[in-house]
Amino acid sequence: MDYVRKFDIELDKDVYYAGETLTGKVVVQNIENIKVQGIRLVLRGKAHVEWKITRAGERRTVRDDEYYIDEKKILPETALPCSFESKIGTIRYYIRMTMDIPYSSSPQGIKYFTVIGPHIDCMDERYMSPCHAKDKRYSCCLCCNKGPVLLSAVLERSAYCCGENVRLKTEVQNGSDENVWIICRFVQNVEYFINKGVLGMNKHVTHRIWEFKTDEVCPHHSEKFENLQSVLQVPVVPTTLVDVCSVIQICYSLKVVMVMDNAGEVLELEFPVTVATVPFRIPNSPMPILQYDVAALNVEGGMYISSEFQLGQVYMGDDETDTDDVVLYRPIYVCVPHERIQVTNIEKEGKMSRAGSRISMTRLFEKRPFSPPKTKEVDKEDSSITDLNKDFLTPEMSKLDITEPQLEVIDHMCTDFVNKADMTSLEVPNENYSPAPSDSRSSNQIQEQDCILEAPSCSSEQTLIMFNIRNVDEMFIR
């Protein structure tokens, strides 16, 4: 209504855990007295997935929802999934309010907030046990076996809170004749499910969060990397969701890959990593201070902002580029106080796809300017000279008995004529030439012109040869 200037909810905080009570106030600003029957508040929490498929030549949208909170004012003390935003699926918690005004439209408002969950403690026993992995590779040349390459790694614990460093130690034994090195990769795997129909559908998305390359190990040497924890850091990412939400699953893994100069990636070790909500702490020590931040821009949950949460400006056609969007809501995640580390030290290749490369190459080929081919010298014994020159002779002159030296001179004169003649204004030196009266050809069309070239004497007399140039461009190309 026009006389309601503001209708909003102000919560005491924007982050809640399962089991906490939401506290806040409803703000109403009006310019006239109004009669209100009441204000209704509805607390909701649901997960939603949606994408498009093609069935029987028809494009359709499939979607599925799962509700966690429905018309309750207190969050239940259960394992709630964390707030999550992506292009395919979302997990949102919000309060919807409605003002009941009789005989008038009812103003509505909505307030989104973030839920931190589920409860995962890094101090749990199942996460505190170290993980060991080892792999070996032999290479052979004919019947001779070369020295093996061995890769072993130890992950001291498998659960980390955002902002903590990964405690990883690796060892390399290089018995080959090539240099080897290690690449550590932190990977996010997100799977979306639609539990409708007989079999249902799913969609899998993988993101490589960071990559770190170690120093090279020389042939027939061994090396231990025990200080990787100083450079490997877990960025701010959504919490691990396994068996909590039936439509969205999120898990992480740490891959340790051995790379050789010529063979490429030869060995790979994979450790499952759990992103927790309660950080690691020393026993009998106070709880560390926690912070909250938005997810990294290269993971699901941080790279996408829905259009309903963006308040931008309308482009007016001016040259000014001041079009900063105002983001109304983004989910945040728990992390320990940390200083962000740039982990990736591998330069990425160009992101142009193969299809794009092919299109660009085709366009470049079409727009390439024409360049005349270079004139090649032909041996005198080549019989193709006679065929080439007879194509340019008129029917009257083609019956003449022309010797081979004369044909060579004619070919040379044709080349000089093409190089020196002006193609835009070709003059006919024969004054006696006059077209037939019935010849009514347009100037825009390619005209047939007869021209006389005077060749130098091959013997003691001069030879005049008449050419019929049917297409100047065609002769130029030849």
UniProtKB/TrEMBL annotation:
Pfam families the record matches: Arrestin_C (PF02752), Arrestin_N (PF00339)
Span of domain Arrestin C-terminal-like: 6-122, 145-280
Polar residues composition bias: residue spans: 431-447
Ranges where the record places region Disordered: 428-447
Annotated SUPFAM superfamilies: E set domains
Alphabetized PANTHER family for the sequence: ARRESTIN C-TERMINAL-LIKE DOMAIN-CONTAINING PROTEIN, ARRESTIN DOMAIN CONTAINING PROTEIN
Family according to the record: Belongs to the arrestin family.
Name assigned to this protein: Arrestin C-terminal-like domain-containing protein
Lineage, opening ranks: Eukaryota, Metazoa, Spiralia, Lophotrochozoa, Mollusca
